[in-house]
Specification:
The complex is a heterodimer.
Chain A (H helix, E strand, L loop, with lengths): L1 H10 L20 H13 L4 H27 L14 H25 L6 H25 L25 H34 L3 H10 L7 H34 L11 H27 L9 H31 L3 H12 L3 H13 L7 H5 L1 H28 L14 H24 L5 H7 L13 H7 L1
Chain B lengths: L1 H4 L22 E2 L6 E8 L2 H13 L5 E4 L7 H4 L7 H27 L18 H23 L13 H5 L5 E6 L7 H10 L3 E7 L7
Parallel strand pairs in B: 1-5
Antiparallel strand pairs in B: 2-4, 2-5, 3-4
Helix pairs in contact in B: 4-5
C-alpha cells in the first residue's frame, strides 16, 4: 500500500516514508511523577481485604504442603506414590514444571532488555519475581526427593571425613549447580534492579518502621550520577549473564533425561524441547499473574497496556508452535529411528494405561496456543486469562507425560508398573502452588511491582535532547 | 579513614561556616551550628541539570554530585565520569570462577577420589563433562561480582548521608534533578554559586549543614 507513495514522494525529493508508530510505553501521556505515584500507591495504600483473604487461602495450602514435606521426611519417600520402575514421579515432574516456568521470567527481563525491546519494561519486574519464586518452588523437590534430606550436603563437593566426593560426570550433579546458580543469579538480578525503586519507597515512607526497613534494603541509594553509571553497567552485565544462564539451565535440566539411554528420553532435541516449553509455560504464567493485577489496580491499566499483553500472547503463540513442532518431530523420529524400543515407548505413551496424560497434554498444547493467531482472542483479556491457565495445565501434563510414561514402560515389559499419586503427592504439589502465590502476594504488597526508574527513563521527554515529545511537563500537572 | 573509602563523607577541612553568608538569605537544612556540607539546588528538567554541570565545570567546580531519579543520557559525559570498571571486575570474577570450577572438579575426580564408571576417562580428555558446572559457576560468580561491585563502587552500603538533612531531597528525591556542590570544593563560595545557580534556573537553592549528632 505504502510502496507507491514512497516512489512518488521520492520523485519529488521529499521522502515521506510510512513509519510504523511505536505503541506508547505508558498510555494517556502519563508523566514520570504519575508513574511513581501509581506504582508506589500499591505498596503505600491500606492493605486491602482481598489481600488478607487471598494470602490466608494460599498460605493454608503452603502450610499443608509444608506439613506433607515434614511427614515425608519423618516417614520416608514411601509416602509418595513413586514405585520401582518409576522412581521419579511427581517430584521431578513438579521440579521441571517449576524450573521451566522460571525461565520465561528471565528471558523476558534479560533477553528482551538486551535486544532493546522496551515494551517488556513494565512487566519485567513481575516476571523476575515469578522467576525467583518458581525456582524456590522447584528447589523444594530436589532437596527432599533424595529421601534422607539430612544428607543433602553430599551433593556439594565438601571435604568430609569419609573421603567421598560427588560424581561430576552425572547430569544430576550438574543440576545441583545449575539450579543453585540460577536461584542466586535471578535473585540478584531481581534485587539489584529493585534498589533504586526501594530507595523511592524509603524517601516516601511516612512511618518509622517503613523508613527503617526500606532504608536498610535500599542500602543508602541516592541516585548519584556515579551510582547510575555503575548501575547501568551492572544491569547490562547481569542481563547478559542471565540470558546465557537460562539456556544453560534448561539444557542441563534436559540433560537429566537426554543423557540417559531410556527410550523416550534419549533424544538430542530435548534441550530445545525444554527451552521452548519453558518460555511457553512462563509466558502463560506471566499472563495469569498480570491480568488479575490489572483488574484489581486500575492505575496499572496505563502501565500494562493491551499492546504489551498482545506481544506476550504472540510470544506464547510462537513458543506454543515450537512445542507443537517438537511433538510432531519426536513422533516422526520414533518412527524413523526404526528402533523397536523407541517406537514401543511412544506407542505405549498414546495407547497404554496412562494415555490420558499424553492426550490431555497434546490436545491442549496443540490447539490452545494456536487460538492466539486471532487478534480478537488476544484482545479479549478474560479469554486470554483462561487460555493461559489452560496452557500451564497442558504443560504440567507434558512434564508428567515425559517423566512417568517413560519410566513406567522401560525395556522390560515384566517390570512395567503404573504410577498412582498418593494424597501426600497431591498435597505437596498444591503446597508448592501455595508457596508460589503466597510469595507473589507478599511481592505485590511490599515492593514496587514495576521498575519505575527504567520506565521513567524511556518516557517521552524525560531525556535531554530526546527530540520530539517534550510535552510531558504540562500533562503531569493535571494528574 | 572511612572518608578515603567512601568518597561521599566530607573531610572536615576547609569548611566554610554559615556565618559567611554575606547577606544571602538562603534556606538552611540541617543544624546551623554544624559545619556546612554543601550547597544544594533543584532543577526542573534534566536538560537544565546537564547544562548546569557544563557551566559549573567551566567555572572550575569539581566537588559536586548530581542526583537523578533515573539515569540521564549525557549526564555522565557532561560530568566527565570515566567508564565504569565493573565490566573488568566481572571479567576477573568470571576467569577466576573458571579456574575454581575446573580445579574443584578435576582435583577430586582425577586425584583424590577417581570414580571410574564404565572405564571412561576422568582426566582432561573428558573435558566436556566438566563444562556445564564451569559455565554455571562462572555465571554465578560473575553475577555476584557484578552486584557487589556495583554496590561497593557506588559507595554503598551507607545508610546515612548529609544530603538527608535536606527535607526536600530526603522526602521525595524523585521530584526533580538535584545537584550538591560540596563546601570543601576549592572554588566554593556561597554567594557566587548561589548567583550562578539562580542564573542557571535552579529552584530551592539550600545550604545543607550536617545534622547535629547527639553523641558529640
Amino acid at each position: 500500500m505504502s510502496t507507491p507513495s514512497i516512489i512518488t514522494n521520492a520523485e519529488t525529493e521529499t521522502p515521506d516514508l510510512h513509519v510504523l508508530e511505536r505503541p506508547p510505553q505508558v498510555l494517556n501521556n502519563r508523566g514520570p511523577l504519575w508513574v511513581t505515584d501509581a506504582v508506589c500507591s500499591i505498596v503505600e495504600g491500606k492493605t486491602p481485604l482481598w489481600w488478607y483473604a487471598a494470602i490466608a487461602f494460599t498460605g493454608t495450602f503452603a502450610a499443608i504442603g509444608g506439613a506433607c514435606i515434614l511427614y515425608m521426611i519423618c516417614t520416608g519417600v514411601g509416602v509418595w506414590g513413586s514405585n520401582n520402575p518409576c522412581f521419579w514421579a511427581w517430584d521431578i515432574t513438579n521440579f521441571i514444571f517449576w524450573v521451566s516456568m522460571a525461565h520465561a521470567g528471565s528471558l523476558i527481563s534479560a533477553l528482551l532488555f538486551l535486544t532493546r525491546q522496551k515494551w517488556s519494561l513494565s512487566i519485567s519486574r513481575a516476571a523476575e519475581a515469578m522467576t525467583v519464586f518458581a525456582i524456590i518452588c522447584a528447589g523444594v523437590y530436589p532437596a527432599i526427593h533424595i529421601g534422607r534430606v539430612w544428607m543433602v550436603w553430599w551433593l556439594f563437593p565438601v571435604p568430609n571425613s569419609y573421603g567421598m566426593w560427588p560424581n561430576f560426570s552425572s547430569p544430576l550433579l550438574w543440576d545441583v549447580f545449575a539450579v543453585t546458580s540460577y536461584l542466586t543469579v535471578s535473585s540478584l538480578f531481581w534485587f539489584a534492579g529493585m534498589i533504586p525503586d526501594l530507595a523511592v519507597l524509603r524517601d516516601r515512607a511516612t512511618t518509622k518502621v517503613r523508613k527503617f526497613a526500606y532504608g536498610i534494603v535500599s542500602l543508602g541509594w541516592l541516585g548519584t550520577a556515579r551510582q547510575w553509571r555503575h548501575y547501568e553497567m551492572m544491569y547490562v552485565l547481569l542481563a547478559g549473564l542471565t540470558s546465557v544462564l537460562v539456556v544453560t539451565v534448561t539444557t542441563i535440566v534436559a540433560s537429566d533425561c537426554a543423557t540417559s539411554v531410556v527410550p523416550g528420553w534419549h533424544a538430542t532435541i530435548f534441550p530445545f524441547y525444554f527451552m521452548v516449553g519453558a518460555v511457553y509455560s512462563g509466558s502463560a504464567a506471566i499472563l495469569t499473574l498480570l491480568l488479575p493485577l490489572r483488574l484489581i489496580y486500575p492505575q496499572l491499566r496505563d502501565l500494562i497496556t493491551p499492546s504489551q499483553l498482545d506481544k506476550v500472547c504472540k510470544l506464547l503463540l510462537l513458543m506454543g508452535s515450537c512445542v507443537a513442532y517438537v511433538y510432531v518431530f519426536e513422533l516422526f523420529n520414533a518412527w524413523y529411528s526404526a528402533n523397536p524400543f523407541e517406537r514401543g515407548a511412544f506407542w505405549e505413551r498414546f495407547t497404554g494405561s496412562s494415555a490420558w496424560y499424553a492426550i490431555t497434554c497434546l490436545s491442549i498444547n496443540l490447539t490452545v496456543p494456536q487460538l492466539f493467531w486471532f487478534k480478537a482472542v488476544r484482545r479479549c483479556l478474560p479469554l486470554v486469562f483462561i487460555l493461559a491457565i489452560l496452557c500451564n495445565v497442558g504443560m504440567w501434563f507434558e512434564r508428567f507425560m515425559i517423566v512417568t510414561s517413560t519410566l513406567t514402560h522401560g525395556f522390560f515389559p515384566s517390570s512395567w508398573k503404573d504410577f498412582h499419586p498418593t494424597i501426600v503427592d497431591i498435597l505437596t504439589a498444591t503446597g508448592t502452588l501455595g508457596i508460589f502465590f503466597t510469595l507473589f502476594l507478599l511481592f505485590i504488597r511490599f515492593v514496587p511491582i514495576m521498575s519505575m526508574n527504567e520506565l521513567k527513563a524511556v518516557l517521552p521527554g524525560t531525556q535531554p535532547h530526546a527530540g520530539a515529545g517534550h510535552s510531558n511537563h504540562s500533562t503531569e500537572e493535571t494528574h | 579513614m572511612l572518608a578515603r573509602v567512601i568518597p561521599i563523607i566530607p573531610r572536615r577541612k576547609h569548611i566554610e561556616m554559615s556565618a559567611h553568608f554575606q547577606g544571602h538569605h538562603l534556606p538552611v537544612a540541617g543544624s546551623k551550628e554544624e559545619p556546612l556540607y554543601a550547597l544544594g539546588a533543584r532543577f526542573e528538567t534534566p536538560e537544565a541539570l546537564v547544562h548546569a554541570v557544563d557551566r559549573l565545570r567551566g567555572e572550575g567546580v569539581s566537588l559536586y554530585e548530581c542526583f537523578t531519579p533515573y539515569p540521564i543520557h549525557g549526564l555522565a559525559e557532561a560530568m566527565k565520569l570515566p567508564k565504569s570498571i565493573l565490566s573488568l571486575l566481572v571479567l576477573g570474577g568470571g576467569v577466576s570462577a573458571v579456574l575454581i570450577a575446573l580445579s574443584m572438579q578435576l582435583i577430586p575426580s582425577c586425584i583424590i577420589y577417581p570414580l571410574v564408571v564404565d572405564g571412561k576417562p576422568l582426566n582432561l580428555l573428558a573435558l566436556p563433562q566438566y563444562i556445564p558446572i564451569v559455565v554455571a559457576l562462572t555465571l554465578m560468580i560473575g553475577a555476584i561480582t557484578a552486584v557487589t561491585g556495583m554496590i561497593l563502587l557506588g559507595g554503598m552500603p551507607q545508610w546515612n548521608n548529609p544530603m538527608f538533612a535536606w527535607d526536600l531531597f530526603a522526602k521525595d528525591a524523585s521530584r526533580g534533578f538535584f545537584i550538591a556542590i560540596e563546601a570543601r570544593d576549592r572554588k566554593f563560595s556561597t554567594s557566587a554559586l548561589t548567583e550562578l545557580l539562580h542564573e542557571l534556573g535552579a529552584d530551592d537553592i539550600t545550604a545543607i549543614h550536617q545534622e547535629a549528632s547527639e553523641g558529640q
